[in-house]
Structures are given as C-alpha cells and as structure tokens.
Amino acid sequence: MGNFPAERITPTFHFNVCGVDFIGPLLVKPVAQRRISARKMYVAIFVCFVTKAVHFELMIDLTSEAFIACLKRFFARRGKSSIVYSDNATNFVGAQSELKRLSDMVKKPDENVSAYLASEEIKWKFSPPRSPNFGGLYEAGVKSFKYHFRRVMKNTKVSVEEILTIISQIEGILNSRPLTPLSCDPTDLSVLTAGHFLIGRPITSVVEPEIIDTPDNRLSRWQRTTKVVQFIWKRWHRDYLNHLQQRSNWQFEKNDLKIGSLVLLKEDNLPPCKWVIGRVKDVIPGSDGKIPVANVQTHSGLYRRGISKICVLPMNNNE
Hints:
This protein is of the alpha+beta class. Helix content is about 30%, strand content about 25%.
C-alpha cells in the first residue's frame, strides 16, 4: 500500500483540506404533492482529509451558480477550505457522464466557479487517476455508503424537505463511526469519532422503532424517510465493520487479539449511530494456538464472542 499524501497526515482544523464527491441524479420534488413533477438534483459529499468527517449539501442542478451556492453553504457551516480535491474528470464516465460537467466548471478558467475559487484563494486540485490511496475522498466507509444510497434512492421520489432530512441523518451516521481509542486505560471505553471534531462529543440519534420490513403502503411519507435511513444504516454498518476486520487482518496476523484492545462487536438490530464498544478482557486460545474466542467487557456487561464477531479498531493504542 502506498504512503498517504501529506495533506492526510498534517494536523490542521477540520475541512481545511477536503475532497468532494457527488451522488446523483436523484428524483426530487420541490414539495410533497402528487401533481408536482420531480426534477434531477445531486448531493455533494465533502470529506475532511484529516478527521474523516463528512458534510452533505444538496445541489438543485448542475449549473455553476448552484455549485457556487453549494460551496458557500458548506464554507459557512464548516469554515472555508484552503485546498479542495475532486475526482479526476476521466473518472466521470458512463452513467455518471452528467457529473463530468461539474469537473469542467473548475477546469475551464473562464467559468464562474474558477473565478469564485480564485477570489477566495481556494486551491482546487484533481486527484491522480488510479490512486485509491489518495485522500479521504476514497475512504472505504464513504464508498460503501454511496453504493447503498444509490440502491435505495434509485427509483424513489422524495420532496426537498425529505431528502434534506435523509442526507442530514446519514451525515450524522457517518460522523458517528468510531475511529480510534481515546486512551490506553483498560477501563475506558471512549472512542474518537468524527463527531468529536465537529461538535466536541459523539453524535447520537433518536431511537425509533424499526420499520425496515413494513410495507411502504402502510407508512406515511415521513415514516418512509425513516425506513430509508434505517435501510442504509443496517447495510452500511455491516459493511464498515467487515472493512475493519479486513484491515486488521491485513496489518496483523489473523486472530491476533490482544488483551486490552478496544473493539467493536457485530450485533444485529442496532439503531442508527449505536455502536457496541468494549475491551478484550481475556482470550481463549484453541488447540492450534490461535484465538477463536474472546471475552469482551462492554458498558452493559461481559460478552463471549467468536473472533468473526469482533472488530479491532484501526490505529489501536495497544498496537
């Protein structure tokens, strides 16, 4: 694996250096009325290179004015960035051909976007082609979210208010993901999340009844937005934990759990933004010397789990 770019490892405030990616088109109605026709809209995803925090903004079309307005809203909420990276224009092909226009806006010096960036002294850079190690723009958790978001929103028509609610809740979910332990204390189960950099504490959500298996014709419009969020959380949460397991196995010997390591447990039917965090209290080696089972201490008690249900946090202090 290649070395990380300097922008990803140099300490700075959040979103000073970020990447931007896009999802779309989405079919969105100005208001939730049957006779109102839907129009194509897009979601801009800003990813902080240092903290892995994400920020979503809705774009009503692919005009330069809409993109500038999107940047202004983002800078007003998160602070102005000094460097913004985006995908190389050659990556916008096939089904994403419409998104190529966004790249053209900043590549042509006579465009309004280029003039705005120059006036604000913002450097816009394109990531090198075939460089998956370049920046949080390609962070696996965000890529997994995009996949599930496209699947669930492909043929779904929502209002502007509903799509804003959906992307705001998903933004909170992505920013709630644990990144690394906060201390080496074996009794401390605190983890660092992207939410700590944004609001100074972990991001939580209101617990609602699970309605994923409820037919849409039995749900109100607002309940259907909750169903969309729960659907994406359930699948993205599983993919993210699987990614942590793959990372651990790539960096360290498989089944190499250490006493005191901070871990996440794979549990079913967790509400959005809820993570089961614990520390390995002791390990139970098998006859071959490997560790198939471990006891994990959580806030709610001691659990015995197989290694397939345990995910070691990356950048663990004990390693």
